[in-house]
Amino acid sequence: MVYLIVVVLGIALVVYLRMNNRYTVKAPWQHFFDGADFAASEFYQQVEAEIRAFKVPDVSYGRESFFQTHIASSRQEYLKIKRGEYVIYICAAAFGRGTFISQWSCLKVQKQRNNIPVISKLLGMDRNDKSFYQADTEGMFQSAVHTALMNVVDGLTTAKGIRGLTEMERHIQLGK
Question: Which of 94, 64, 59, 58 is nearest to 77 (CA)?
Answer without folding.
Answer: 64
